[in-house]
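Treating backbone geometry as a discrete language has practical consequences that deserve illustration. The amino acid sequence and the backbone structure tokens for this protein are reproduced below.
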Amino acid sequence: MRYTLDPIPHYTSELLPVPHALFTRVGGVSSGLFASLNLSHHVGDAAEHVEANRELVRTTLTLDRLCAVHQVHGDQIAVIDEKYPENEEADGYDALITTAPGIGLLIQQADCQAVLLSCPKQQVVAAVHCGWRGSVLNIISKTVQRLSKQFAVHPKNLRAVISPSLGPCCAEFIHYRRELPAWMQAYQVRPHYFNFWAISCRQLEESGILPHHIDVIGLCTRCNHQFFSYRRASVLQNGMTGRNGSIIALPPIQGR
């Protein structure tokens, strides 16, 4: 893991050989509950602030453009190409795949995980939005399967990074017996608290990704005020807060 302040604060992983970043909430133009690098249009922030923030992260990675979807905690996967409208957010998807150079796949999260996937042997990247519902639906495995079937990616060649997200210190589930399948209950670290980082690692490994090709950033968004956190905001701000951004892309074509 590397932490960079310039031009705006973000984390990267040495595992990923392509442009990517796991952004904090710092360095943007939004104010109030959304201060300052809110990247979501769906939380009540001013649209012009979100667009300015997205431009900041795009230029940080020197990408041609960003693509996002309206995430719904489901398991549907969108394949993004050059024809995907730049200002459109298709509804109902929680994972994105692209083979198009220079298009940043943006995941917006505040406690959920962004799982970034790259295959050095193939020109393809993916980004997955994975909260507890996504874990139950196993959207991670479904994305790996899609990469394998549609893009001829062998899972053993994939690299995966799990973003800052709700850690085992704060992932409390009072009603876990009805919300989580029985196998997940083995990841209860103390009464009602679960290690979803370990759950995602298991799902990645069961999909065929090698353990040493998985990087867990290991920063809890609820504990760390460097990030937006829905759970923290639920206590202090009636749930009103921004969304952190995680991006992965294939390198843009120079001179285009």
The longest strand covers residues 103-109.
